[in-house]
Amino acid sequence: KKHEKKRKGWIKLHIALDLKRKKVVAMEVTDERVKDSQKAKELVKKSKKKAEEKGKSISKVIADAGYDTHELFRYLGEEGIEPAVAMSKNSVRVFLT
Fold this sequence. Notes:
- This protein is α+β, with helices and mostly antiparallel strands and 97 residues long.
- Helix content is 29%, strand content 26%.
- It contains two helices and four strands; from the N terminus they run E-E-H-E-H-E.
- The strands form two sheets. Strands 1-2 form a two-stranded antiparallel ribbon.
- The longest helix has 18 residues, at 36-53.
């Protein structure tokens, strides 16, 4: 018991970047219990709002497999944004033509 450590957890920083301008456009801080995919839509919405304020638009979202959800793909499709999201190992996609 003397050497047992109590786990304190950690924080996660979710960041949306404008790759052309190399600037942070949206940011969220959460604890380790929040999944990346839970913040994806919110980050895209904030990024889109900032882009629209400058008369710009978002053409593509690039993300790792932590953001691979049907909800995000559906939202990006509705907004006319191209998804470039790495697929997780166990994901299945249905592409309609």
